[in-house]
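Could you help me review a protein record that somebody else here produced? Do not assume that whoever made the record got everything right. The record follows directly below this note.
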Amino acid sequence: MAIDAKAKALKAAGENVIGFGAGEPDFPTPEHIVEAAARATHNSAYHRYTPAAGLPELRSAIASKTKRDSAYDVEAQQVVVSNGGKQALYNACMAIVDPGDEVILPAPYWVSYPDMIRLAGGTMVAVETTEATGFRATLDQLEKASSAKTKALMFTSPSNPTGSVYPPDEVEAIARWCHDHGIWIITDEIYEHLVFGDHSFSSMPVLVPEVADRCIVVNGVAKAYAMTGWRVGWSIAPPDVTKKMISLQSHTTSNVSNVAQVAALAAVSGDLDGARKMRAAFDRRRQTIVKLLNDIEGVDCYDPEGAFYAFPSVKALFGRTITGVTIESSLDLADVVLGEAKVAFVPGEGFGAPGYARFSYALGDDDLEEGIGRIARLLAST
């Protein structure tokens, strides 16, 4: 947040800042989705309160979309439409995590996961991963991290911030381990359509159906349909947990904006042509940014397999003095790079990974090359 605030201040002062921080596609929302929302504004039925769990037709469409995209067969009654995937994750934590419970969380992790666990009264148990294992947690690590207090595993693949993707056999093995130990699974599938090369997305309750009664799947329209600002996500959970999540949401936010829900209905009911085009662009940018980062002495970038983030190690730069500042952390590096090169990226500390940096490549090709070029020139000059 400190880096973000400084970047905004520099932009406000007229500086040409290139930002690699935003975790959102730079593409516009597809026109047919926007048009559906525009029509909804003139429908008086959407000017009123609607069910807290979401428009019935949207819940049904999400169930159909889930069957189509990941082969997970669920009922509309298991779906809760929320204000983005973030609220769905928060609802999930509040529904199943009690004070004193432990939640296993592979690191690096998305910045909001730990606080959601803490807000529910739980304790995060981090499992450290590195590029040596493809940023994937092993069964041995999970076993060592578990205890009698373990309530849940929070799982995501493809990963934010690393871009790692667990292969199907590892997803299945982890799901079976959770089932055998009676551990809940909260699985974030928001990047399901952004997988590159020979890698593939796998859904835990599809590979291991036995976990479905202790599994909460979270997803949304933000990434695949370029709809981050529309704020529509959802959860799919066992019926008894779904009822609790509906009750919680009814007392906090009530229904999601009806216009946004209609837009989401158009998105999930349509084809995936837009998602495929974005994925092709992201794949091209992925290859570009990995090469550019690895060409910088002292930067070592793992080749991401999904999502739209590069997560290089910058540890080899520690101890160097850049424009009078001795770099002792990735936060130091981010501050200097922003101040001197006018390039913003997210330091790894926020993801539980000191010594790394997250670069979103969801920005234009020209800005991507110029931004990494500025960093390279700055480091080469010191």
